[in-house]
Specification:
With 283 residues, the chain is of the alpha/beta class. It has eleven helices and nine strands. Strands 1-2-4-5-6-7-8-9 form an eight-stranded mixed β-barrel, surrounded by four helices. The longest helix has 33 residues. It binds ligand C2E and magnesium ion (3 copies). The site of one magnesium ion has 4 residues, from loops.
């Protein structure tokens, strides 16, 4: 009967909810152990300029749990944000990244590399975020201008002006700011001229659609045109094919990241990629 079916439906949803609550609890308690047990690491994905030379990297968080295995940041970063654990984890990421920048500064063929780090809104909302970053920069000796903080449009959603004043304080430290996943959020275009941004990262969904979908192609061209008139750098994310790269170059895009140039990889592999490029005369 309809009544029975209704009951079953309710029970089915209850079970799903129960399941996801258990799953979340499991993930969250595992997440509390990660910093203590050194289960986190950073992978480095190359970023290239218009000539294909590696000019920097994005640091991407990886979590290996002995029981749960490798966990994707798409799964655990949202949880870490909800539980507030992203704050200590994010500081750990920034410290690792700044140490790496300082090491690269010591060698001529890596000294010009920039390193981009994802910063979530919860981190930025911490009253002492700017002071903590200043301390990390001082401790590690990293050059602020080589550090790029990647923020998402959600930074602006709860804005009573605090997001953008934080961003100005960060700019005064000398770090650069990028707007990640651009085009997927809800922010108004007028923000682009008000915010102290250095770069916008064109979301990979537009890059992936640009050769088959005329709307995606139009968005790519529009974003590049707008950025150019606002004197903002554009980095195209998720570039997987030579055809996408060529198409983006034709629209005036200056920076690129994606599997075509290299996947996120452990530091040693990324540095091998760099020295191979260096000795073949690319750098
Ligand atoms: P994101 O910052 O937009 O990072 C780019 C994502 O696209 C990465 O996924 C990367 O592996 C993937 N990607 C790169 N090139 C390609 C490509 O050519 N094709 C495709 N299909 N994908 C590509 P990943 O590493 O799984 O990270 C997912 C998201 O997790 C990141 O998106 C970022 O929002 C978040 N995240 C990662 N590390 C951190 C971190 O340290 N802190 C914070 N707050 N968030 C992080
Ligand atoms: Mg990013
Ligand atoms: Mg992105
Ligand atoms: Mg993303």
């Amino acid at each position: 009967s309809a009544k029975a079916a209704g009951r079953n439906t309710v029970r089915f949803f209850d079970m799903q909810l129960q399941h996801s609550v258990t799953e979340r609890a499991r993930l969250e308690s595992a997440l509390r152990r990660v910093l203590a047990e050194e289960q986190l690491s950073l992978h480095y994905q190359p970023q290239v300029d218009a000539s294909g030379r590696i000019c920097g990297a994005e640091a991407l968080l990886r979590w290996h749990d002995s029981v749960l295995g490798n966990l994707s940041p798409q799964r655990f970063v949202p949880l870490a944000e909800e539980s507030g654990l992203i704050v200590p984890i994010g500081l750990w990421v920034l410290e690792q990244a700044c140490r790496q920048l300082a090491r690269w500064a010591a060698s001529p063929h890596t000294a010009a590399l920039s390193l981009s780090v994802n910063v979530s809104v919860c981190q930025l909302r911490q009253p002492d975020f700017v002071a903590q970053l200043r301390a990390i920069l001082a401790q590690t000796g990293a050059a602020p201008a080589r550090l790029v903080l990647e923020l998402t449009e959600s930074v602006l959603m709860d804005d009573n002006g605090s997001g953008s004043s934080k961003m100005r304080a960060l700019r005064r430290l000398g770090v650069r700011l990028a707007l990640d996943d651009f085009g997927t959020g809800y922010s108004s275009l007028s923000y682009l001229k008000k915010l102290p941004l250095h770069q916008i990262k064109l979301d990979q969904s537009f890059v992936q659609g640009m050769l088959s979908d005329s709307h995606d192609a139009a968005i790519v061209r529009a974003v590049l045109g707008l950025a150019q008139s606002l004197q903002l750098d554009v980095l195209a994310e998720g570039v997987e094919s030579q055809a996408q790269y060529t198409g983006l170059l034709a629209c005036g895009c200056q920076h690129f990241q994606g599997y075509l140039f290299g996947a996120p990889q452990p530091l040693a592999a990324f540095e091998q990629l760099l020295s191979a490029a260096y000795s073949s005369g690319e750098r």
